[in-house]
Structure formats: C-alpha cells, structure tokens
C-alpha cells in the first residue's frame, strides 16, 4: 500500500519539456518532500502522480501495478488542497464527507469515516460549523479530513500551508508530521520552504528545471550536498 514508482517520466506543454526524464521510487509509508524554486515542475509532477495531468511519456506504478492510464479516482491517492478550496455553504461534516458522497458510499460507513477523521483532527466540536466560522488552522484540517476519509494509499500535498501566517504554519507542520506518524501512510509534500522540507521529510527530492538534482534524507543533503544549487536550497554551508 503506497509504493509509487516513476519510470522515464516526461511532460511537455506545447513542445516545452517541463519534465525532461525523471525516475523516482517512493517507498510505502515514506514522507517525501519535493523542493525547488518556483516553476521547476513540483506541481506538475504531483499532478502527474495524481493523474490530473497526462504524462507525455513514461510509466507510473502504484503498488507495483501500472497506473499510467488510470483516471485519478482509481489511483487511491488523495490530493490535499489549500484550505480555501472548501465549500463555504457546507458544514464541516459535509465538506469532509463530500468525496464519499460523490462515490455514493453508504451512510453508516460514511459517518464512521467522517467521525473518525474529525476525531483524529480535533474537529469533533466544530463538525456542524461552516468554514467561515473556523480559524485558518481548523480550515486546513478540514481540507486534510476530506483526504483522510478516502483512506488513500498516499496523500499528495501541494504547498498546503502557503496561505497561512507564519505562526500557524509551524503548528500545521507539526500536525501534518504527527498525522503521518499516526497513519503511516505515504505522503508526498510539495513546498518551496526549506524549513518545511528539512523538518518534515524522510526523503527530500530537490528539483531544478524538471530534473532531480539530488535525493536523500535531510541529513544527507545537509552534510553532503552534491552541488552549490542543492547546498543553497538546503541551507548547508558548502
Ligand atoms: P512549480 O510548482 O515548481 O512552481 P509548475 O509545475 O507549476 O512549477 O510549472 C513548471 C513549468 O511548467 C512552469 O514553467 C510552468 O509555467 C509550466 N506549466 C505548468 N502548467 C502548465 C500548463 N497547464 N500549460 C503550460 N505550461 C505549464
Ligand atoms: Mg507549484
């Protein structure tokens, strides 16, 4: 559950190769962070994994099975969007349940999952409120809850904290790390924030112009950056 392999993946937009040729293995249960400057292809890579974007060429395996042509709903991956993607007119309960309602899940199972997610995320007391009546951190938790109820093989986060203020970001960073420890589900987390990368990741993938510059643990990248680009990004003294 949750092993993802990319093999010779390429992506071009109108003849421009944004991902020239990329190979990457993500192990089950790993917390993998994609870092790199704006425009280096982090979001594109995440969207290719999610199936929201078609690859130009290459293969993606999920748990050893070829998922290259599977639509997003059949990949069992859950994308966590920024908190402003919530439905303002729906309660927390309905926002969290939304993907299950779309999948026409039976009500008892749906309620079980929503209540479990609300408990994990400390949202039980807020379940009947609307997003407008919540703090920024609570709203971000609702967005995560919407992913949890799908019981995905992996969570995909695209800069989920970038619209939160600095203090809140630190708290949410810890909460997402704790959630990973609790669920032990694969998480792929995109950020351009090196502190997030260094503190959250089991494995960091440093991207530059759609190529992987280096892959390693935070400590490996800090102590043995391959080049000045990686060193500059990770903040190590090379
Ligand atoms: P990042 O998330 O690292 O900031 P993106 O993956 O969003 O980078 O973008 C990588 C490159 O691909 C950028 O040059 C961007 O302009 C281009 N790009 C992304 N999406 C599209 C699209 N739908 N059409 C054309 N170009 C795109
Ligand atoms: Mg992006």
Quick recap of the structure?
With 238 residues, the chain is an alpha/beta fold.
Topology record:
Blueprint: E1 4-13, E2 16-26, E3 31-35, H1 42-50, E4 57-62, E5 65-66, E6 77-80, H2 92-102, H3 107-120, H4 136-148, E7 154-158, H5 166-183, E8 186-190, H6 194-200, E9 203-208, E10 211-216, H7 218-223, H8 228-234
Parallel strand pairs: 3-8, 3-9, 6-7, 7-8
Antiparallel strand pairs: 1-2, 1-4, 4-5, 9-10
Helix pairs in contact: 2-3, 2-4, 3-4, 4-5
The chain binds adenosine-5'-diphosphate and magnesium ion (MG).
What is the overall number of helices? 8
| Quaternary organization | single chain
Low-confidence stretches: none
C-alpha termini separation:
38 Å
Mean pLDDT: 94
The sequence of SSEs as H and E is: EEEHEEEHHHEHEHEEHH
Strand content: 25-35%
Bound molecules: adenosine-5'-diphosphate, magnesium ion
> C-alpha Rg, in Å?
18 Å
Structural class by helix and strand composition: alpha/beta
The strands making up the biggest β-sheet line up spatially as 6-7-8-3-9-10
Envelope shape: globular
Helix amount: 25-40%
Please provide the count of β strands: 10
Largest sheet: 6 strands, mixed
